[in-house]
Write a structure and sequence with these properties.
Number of helices: 9
Oligomer: single chain
Strand content: 15-25%
Strand order of the largest sheet: 5-9-10
Number of strands: 10
Structural class: alpha/beta
Length: 343
Amino acid sequence: MIVGGEVGLSDPVKLAEYMNKIEDIVRACVKDIGYEQEKFHWKTLEVTNLLHEQSAHIAQGVNASDEDGKDEGAGDQGLMFGYAIDETPELMPAPIHYSHAILRRLAEVRKNGTEPTLGPDAKSQLTLKYRDGKPQGITSIVLSTQHLDPSLTSSDVREIVEPYIRETVPDNWITNETLWWVNPTGKFVIGGPDGDAGLTGRKIIVDTYGGAAPHGGGAFSGKDPTKVDRSAAYAARYLAKNVVAAGIATRCTLQLSYAIGVATPLSIYCDTHGTGRVSDAEITRAITVSMDLTPRGIRQHLGLNKPIYQRTAAYGHFGRKPDSDGGFSWEETDLTEVLKKAL
């Protein structure tokens, strides 16, 4: 396993201490996921650490000095999108919401020993039928899940997972017409990096809205919150969710854009897809006065300078319940009154 990236610790002693912990952290993570197969086992995997200090030329745009009277600049350029829709209580698109819920449920029964033959490598996909813009049922279910018993067929695996899928999705969404594709290629015994290198920087559509909304292209995972790929995407989700939670619209897409080294966003674009009680221009103006969208303002408002990111490594970054320690703070709906008063 290769660990790469840049670290911004300026204290060489602390940096050395941190670097010495990397291998133990990697092994603990792989163990927690559950990989204990012959060619990929948390005890025996080889760890190559390629972490090094951050480029001073990149850091200069972020590390603005208060003495110079400048605000902290964005850590990169790009577009970030946030999205919310009222088709689930979490204000998430239903297909991605229930796809994640299925995987969480299967991980629970795998880890608690109820279904020990299931492996840690799994992914799901749902196709839903809509009527008048509202989800009505599931037309197809795709689930690929690693299994540790090589004698199991696709039918055997479906028999194991089907009860958990049915209890996870809304009643009556699965009918006799629903198509099931469980391990459609057959056996799935070899999983994880042993079967697929997976060099994707995390799958950004799975981490966000399942393709129901645009994505700016930057992955979140592995980035600290000075990188607007992460923090501004969280802010955009937070604002879009609060717009919908406030009843200002039933669907909202929000786009922010930044330039490296520049603090304020270059553009703010709101699209409520014809569902807004007021114009999109009015909502955009309300957003600009309701939250400081500089990188520092976002980090302070959402409390992002905390070790809260490991839990985002699975089941998506959005539609999650806010944690008491500040995790998933961008899922709070505490800005609704502020937005309504700003209109």
